[in-house]
């Protein structure tokens, strides 16, 4: 009698179902948002569903790559992404291929195909490289010391700083903060000693608290921290939106009015009364809050919690550290996006202009998030679980 081991590829249908529910939610809310007069009858729902279709194809493609293959391509993808950011940085503002939009030079405009935002894909490429570097470091330095931990922290920091510098130059502070969140998430699970992390993060927290104190009490001093005039307006509108509701605080005031007027159960699908700019993209949660109220918002937030739980479970189940670090990076990215986007619509955080994952309209954002989900599904798909079959 002989025994043969057969690997069983397995798709995580729980994650697939959660993404499908988010797709439905996205289509429903965008359909309502696009009825606002400012969009001139543009069918954003159809375009979003097309992007979901392309994103699904991307995710299926990514699933085919196992751990070894992902390790091999990670640095190449990172290099391509960084090169695209450098091209955006060097390109003249008058060049139609990379023209400024909403004050930022962040997109490549491809005729008949739309706009591509390299920084969105760079987030996923950075997660791959951070995971590879961290996993390889622990293989090389089995015996950990403060010196080896500091070296790992330095490597992770340099990997993140490179794209952040060019993204800040676009300027795009919101996306830059996502990279910081990914870095922090990776550092916390990397095994670096707290003897290094406590003083470093204490210093960063102190600096952040100082900047916040200055922003509230002596905002004119923020120019010494590199804060630009347009960013002053965002800070002012966040701290006192009522005073600036005619200009910089207009979106925040309309957003809070829309969400507040939805109350517990909302006004019903399509029954919007509050005019809200960008209600199909960055401020889509405002549309959801007005039409479906606290109940609708809670259901959507619960879906995000479910997705994060599912990714966490995948990361804990695998015995491959590289896969686990990928899951941590994806969790950090999605969590920060959700917290920042919803936080800015209710006035809890300043407006930074980052979308709500899987819900806001936007091709680059959706494709990068679907690519990240493809990486997570790849972990489960290539997880080495075996079925034993016997034959005589």
Structural class per helix/strand content?
mainly alpha
Question: Mean pLDDT, rounded to whole units?
Answer: 84
Oligomer: single chain
Largest sheet: 2 strands, antiparallel
Number of extended strands: 4
Which consecutive residue ranges, at least 5 long each, have pLDDT under 50?
Answer: 385-392
Question: How would you characterize this protein structure?
Answer:
The chain crosses the membrane at residues 12-33, 45-63, 75-95, 107-130, 150-167, 173-189, 196-216, 292-310, 322-339, 359-379. This is Rod shape determining protein RodA. It comes from Siminovitchia thermophila. Keywords: Cell membrane, Cell shape, Cell wall biogenesis/degradation, Glycosyltransferase, Membrane, Peptidoglycan synthesis, Transferase, Transmembrane, Transmembrane helix. It is found in: Membrane. By secondary structure, the protein is mainly α. The chain has one domain (2-391). The protein has twelve helices and four strands. The chain has a two-stranded antiparallel sheet with strand order 1-4. The protein has a two-stranded antiparallel ribbon with strand order 2-3. The protein starts with a strand and ends with a strand.
Keywords:
single chain; 392 residues; mainly alpha; two-stranded antiparallel sheet; 12 helices; 65% helix; disordered C terminus
């Amino acid at each position: 009698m002989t025994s043969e081991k057969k690997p069983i590829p397995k798709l995580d249908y729980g994650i697939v179902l959660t993404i499908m529910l988010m797709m439905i939610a996205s289509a429903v809310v965008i359909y309502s948002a696009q009825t606002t007069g400012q969009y001139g009858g543009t069918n954003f729902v159809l375009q979003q569903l097309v992007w979901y279709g392309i994103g699904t194809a991307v995710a299926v493609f990514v699933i085919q790559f196992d751990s070894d293959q992902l390790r091999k391509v990670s640095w190449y993808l990172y290099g391509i992404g960084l090169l695209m950011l450098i091209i955006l940085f060097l390109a003249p503002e008058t060049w139609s291929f990379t023209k400024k939009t909403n004050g930022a030079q962040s997109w490549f405009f491809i005729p008949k195909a739309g706009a591509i935002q390299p920084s969105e894909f760079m987030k996923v490429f950075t997660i791959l490289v951070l995971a590879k570097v961290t996993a390889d470091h622990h293989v090389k330095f089995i015996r950990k010391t403060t010196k080896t931990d500091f070296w790992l922290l330095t490597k992770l920091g340099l990997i993140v700083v490179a794209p952040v510098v060019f993204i800040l130059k676009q300027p795009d502070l919101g996306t830059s903060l996502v990279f910081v969140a990914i870095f922090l998430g990776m550092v916390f699970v990397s095994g670096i000693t707290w003897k290094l992390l406590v003083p470093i993060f204490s210093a960063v927290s102190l600096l952040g608290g100082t900047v916040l104190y200055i922003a509230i009490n002596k905002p004119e001093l923020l120019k010494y921290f590199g804060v630009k005039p347009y960013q002053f307006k965002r800070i002012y509108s966040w701290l006192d939106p009522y005073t600036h509701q005619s200009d910089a605080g207009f979106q925040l005031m309309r957003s809070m009015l829309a969400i507040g007027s939805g109350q517990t159960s909302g006004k019903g699908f399509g029954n919007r009364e509050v005019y809200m700019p960008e209600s199909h993209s960055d401020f889509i949660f405002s549309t959801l809050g007005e039409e479906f109220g606290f109940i609708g918002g809670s259901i959507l937030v619960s879906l995000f919690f479910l997705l994060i739980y599912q990714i966490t479970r995948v990361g804990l189940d695998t015995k491959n550290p590289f896969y686990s670090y990928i899951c941590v990076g994806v969790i950090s990215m999605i969590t920060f996006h959700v917290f920042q986007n919803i936080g800015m619509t209710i006035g809890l955080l300043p407006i930074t202009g980052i979308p709500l994952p899987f819900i806001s309209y936007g091709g680059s954002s959706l494709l990068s998030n679907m690519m990240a989900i493809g990486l997570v599904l790849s972990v489960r798909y290539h997880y080495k679980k075996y079925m034993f079959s016997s034959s005589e």
